[in-house]
Design goal:
- By secondary structure, the protein is α/β, with parallel strands linked by helices.
- The protein has a single domain, classed as Alpha-Beta Horseshoe (Leucine-rich repeat, LRR (right-handed beta-alpha superhelix)), CATH 3.80.10.
- A hairpin with a 6-residue loop joins strand 1 and strand 2.
- The chain is elongated and about 80 Å long.
- It starts with a helix and ends in an 8-residue tail after the last strand.
- The protein binds 2-acetamido-2-deoxy-beta-D-glucopyranose (6 copies).
- InterPro entries: Leu-rich_rpt, LRR_dom_sf, LRR_N_plant-typ, PGIP.
Length: 308
């Protein structure tokens, strides 16, 4: 009896081992045009070590940082992250020749320079674009507005200059991160019509008004505007979006006072320090940290010292 069961188990094991393993590479055999484009990108980037796996001996859907659609082998994702700082090249314009691209991330390529090429307008399926911690410079191109499916745009930690293009507000977006660049000028009013969930413009030199992001029927949850030159009357903001739970306005030139709207229970993180605010902090913020309010012109009342 015991011998029989061992025999059966052995047979089962042998059958299992001999079954052909399902071949993934066959399922998403890389599209030849996409393979060629990726090899051109690799060449443009100077054949860096981090792209060593990008080689014809392996199906391109298996290369590091590359994902394809299962059936057609079209490249949908390109992710290039580098900690070793070895790529010194212009932005590869060949990126525009990946017509099925949905997600592109180029992160920590600190010697990648030049501008965002206009070939980007061909990436009509692009849903998410992250170019962060590079040396890309020049303006944030207004042609990015042609990418109607672009919901997530992260261009933080680069060297972009000029103002935020008005056209970025023409289509819906969810996330817009532009922090730590050298952006100047006013934020275009058009951005007030976009149903953002997260916006980060911190650490630039932006000026003017932010009131287009406030109001009761907005969807914004996280809004980081600290360390800029924003200058407007906060008294006029008497309604905040119910969705808003993180608002950081510190280190600007914002004046006026805090309306009762700022004591909303949904607002978990608020920082208005280092501005030019005055008047009494509204009821309901007594438990907040005083560093959220300090260094203003004449803001007073708990958690700051009492008003005189
Ligand atoms: C940089 O890339 C070159 C080849 O392009 C390679 O010889 C060198 O070892 C790399 N350096 C680092 C730090 O990875
Ligand atoms: C980028 O570099 C920073 C510091 O060198 C590191 O903390 C971070 O994890 C890197 N990010 C990626 C996506 O490689
Ligand atoms: C934001 O959402 C509202 C309501 O759903 C919609 O009417 C409006 O068109 C959206 N805005 C954009 C820029 O798509
Ligand atoms: C939001 O409010 C503004 C003015 O208060 C109004 O013009 C707009 O139609 C509202 N949008 C939605 C989606 O309700
Ligand atoms: C700010 O707005 C409030 C309310 O509209 C107004 O009373 C106040 O005079 C304004 N402050 C300045 C400096 O314009
Ligand atoms: C508010 O911002 C100031 C200035 O950046 C900072 O020193 C302080 O710690 C912040 N407070 C909170 C509660 O985040």
């Amino acid at each position: 009896m015991k011998n029989l069961s061992i025999f059966i188990i052995s047979i089962l094991l042998i059958i299992l081992i001999c079954l052909p393993t399902p071949s993934l590479s066959k399922q998403n055999a890389c599209n030849k045009n996409d393979e060629k484009t990726l090899l051109n990108i690799k060449k443009s980037l100077g054949n860096p070590n981090i792209l060593a796996s990008w080689h014809k001996t392996l199906d391109c859907c298996q290369w590091d940082g590359i994902y394809c659609t299962l059936n057609t082998g079209r490249v949908t994702d390109v992710n290039i992250f580098s900690a070793s700082d070895n790529i010194s090249a212009q932005f590869p314009p060949e990126i525009g020749d990946l017509p099925y691209l949905q997600n592109l991330a180029l992160i920590n390529l600190t010697n990648l320079y030049g501008q965002i090429p206009s070939s980007f307008t061909k990436l009509t399926r692009l849903n998410s674009l992250a170019i962060t911690s590079t040396s890309l410079s020049g303006p944030i191109p207004s042609f990015l507005s042609e990418l109607k499916n672009l919901m997530f745009l992260d261009l933080s930690y680069n060297k972009f200059t000029g103002s935020i293009p008005e056209s970025l507000g023409w289509f819906n977006r969810q996330v817009l991160y532009l922090s730590n660049n050298r952006l100047t000028g006013n934020v275009p009013k058009s951005l007030g019509y976009v149903n953002f969930t997260k916006v980060d413009f911190s650490e630039n030199q932006l000026t003017g008004d932010l009131s287009m992001f406030f109001g009761s029927n907005k969807t914004i949850r996280v809004a980081h505007f600290f360390r800029n030159h924003f200058q407007f009357n906060l008294s006029e903001v008497d309604e905040l979006p119910e969705s808003l739970w993180d608002l950081q306005l510190d280190h600007n030139k914002i004046y006026g006072s805090l309306s009762a709207a700022f004591a909303s229970e949904s607002l978990q993180y608020l920082n208005v320090s280092y501005n030019r605010l005055c008047g009494k902090i509204p009821q309901g913020l007594q438990k907040a940290d005083e560093t959220s309010f300090f260094h203003n012109r004449c803001l007073c009342g708990s958690p700051l010292p009492a008003c005189s």
